[in-house]
Structures are given as structure tokens and as C-alpha cells.
Write a structure and sequence with these properties.
Blueprint lengths: L3 H68 L3 H21 L4 H16 L3 H14 L6 H14 L3 H14 L6 H14 L3 H14 L4 H15 L6
Helix pairs in contact: 1-2, 1-3, 2-3, 3-4, 4-5, 5-6, 6-7, 7-8, 7-9, 8-9
């Protein structure tokens, strides 16, 4: 029997052993790096879980404080609750800017400003929520009220931009019909009757059962009566 095959195997094993001996430091470093990566991943996961839990507790506390603030009738106590709430919301945004609690904090800050008719601050916080959390279910709601706040400021251009973002990005939102009607209404005030009609027809085509579509139909009749669009 030929000895060529066993000798070839022996040479291969010798070469492999030599390679492993020369590369053992690199292999050790690679192994350490892999272990360090695994450890870092689990540590990061635990930190994220802890942050979610802590931020959720803070968000729950903020929600209760807002409820107490709304119900409070004593002026001094109401002011104290408002300060405690605003301080807590600021801490949430500082400590947990990427957590769900931050979404709620932006919304609560905006709502507080909205109640106080501080339209600029309200619009700013609504816009911040929509921009920083565009995939949140709260984003279209924030954009809608950003538009309302901008209208209160007399900034029709910014309001229209907010409503248009709902139209472009949140086609499945239940708030879309309201946003569409608001777009049509603002286009009317700008003298763009044809553009308004186009949006009202979009409401008719895509949301025939919406209450906002019923109002849009009345506006179409009004535009025809006023001679701003053809019969």
C-alpha cells in the first residue's frame, strides 16, 4: 500500500499546527473581542430595559400629576402642581430622550401650553414630537394640533405645512379627513378655490362617510354659489 496519502495527511496536520501556533495570539485576541462584544450587548440590553422601566414610571407619575393639576381648583396648589409637572417633564426629556416617555412628555408639554393659549410653545412641542418620533402613533395627532396652534398664531403657511405632512405621511390615520378639510379651508382663505376643490374631492373619493366630508360638500356648494368654481 502506498504511503503517499498518510504522508500528505501528516504534512497537512503539521502545517495546520504551525499556523495555529503562529496565530494563537490573534485567535486569543479575537476570542476576547467576541466575548467582550457579547458581554457589552447584554449590559447594554439591561441598561435599556432599566431605562424603559424607570422612564415608564416617570411617565405614569407625570400623567397622574397632570390629572391632579386639571382637577385642582385652588390657585396656589395648582401652580405648585404645574411646576412639579413641568420639572418632571423636563427631566424625562433630558434623561430619556429616546424612550416612549419622551413622546408623552412632549405631548404633555404641548397640551399644557395649548391650555394656556401659549400657541408658540404648543406648536414647538407638537412639532418636536412629530419630528423626533415620526413613526409614533402620536405623530399625526401632534402635527394636527401643531397646525391648529399655528393658525392661532396667524401663521397659515406653517399650519398648512403641518396639515400637509399628515396628508403625505399618515394616509392610514383616522385624523386624515380632518387634516384634509383643514388644508382645503386654508387654501380657500388664500384664494386658491381650485386647490381647495381638489382637496374636498379627495375627501369625497377616499372618505365618503366622514363627517369632515359632509362639511366639505357644503363648502363645495358654497364655492359654486359664490361663483369661485364652475357649476
Amino acid at each position: 500500500m502506498s504511503t503517499a496519502q498518510p504522508e500528505a495527511k501528516t504534512r497537512f496536520l503539521d502545517r495546520l499546527t504551525a499556523i495555529l501556533q503562529k496565530s494563537r495570539l490573534a485567535l486569543l485576541i479575537l476570542l476576547i473581542a467576541i466575548l467582550a462584544g457579547i458581554i457589552a450587548y447584554f449590559v447594554w440590553t439591561e441598561i435599556q430595559n432599566a431605562a424603559r422601566e424607570k422612564s415608564a414610571l416617570w411617565a405614569e407619575k407625570a400623567q397622574k400629576l397632570e390629572q391632579q393639576w386639571v382637577a385642582e381648583t385652588d390657585t396656589a396648589k395648582k401652580q405648585s402642581l404645574e411646576k412639579e409637572l413641568t420639572d418632571l417633564l423636563a427631566r424625562i426629556l433630558s434623561r430619556y430622550p429616546r424612550q416612549y416617555a419622551a413622546q408623552r412628555a412632549y405631548l404633555q408639554q404641548a397640551d399644557l401650553a395649548y391650555r394656556a393659549k401659549d400657541w408658540g410653545k404648543a406648536a414647538e412641542n407638537y412639532q418636536a414630537l412629530a419630528s423626533r418620533f415620526p413613526r409614533s402613533y402620536l405623530a399625526p395627532l401632534a402635527l394636527l394640533y401643531a397646525g391648529v396652534s399655528s393658525e392661532e398664531l396667524g401663521d397659515a403657511k406653517q399650519a398648512l405645512s403641518s396639515y400637509q405632512r399628515v396628508r403625505e405621511r399618515y394616509r392610514d390615520s383616522y385624523l386624515l379627513p380632518r387634516a384634509l378639510f383643514s388644508i382645503g379651508r386654508l387654501l380657500e382663505t388664500e384664494g386658491d378655490s381650485a386647490g381647495a376643490l381638489k382637496v374636498y374631492n379627495e375627501l369625497e373619493d377616499d372618505h365618503p362617510d366622514s363627517n369632515w366630508t359632509k362639511v366639505a360638500r357644503n363648502r363645495i356648494l358654497g364655492l359654486k354659489t359664490e361663483g369661485k368654481i364652475p357649476e
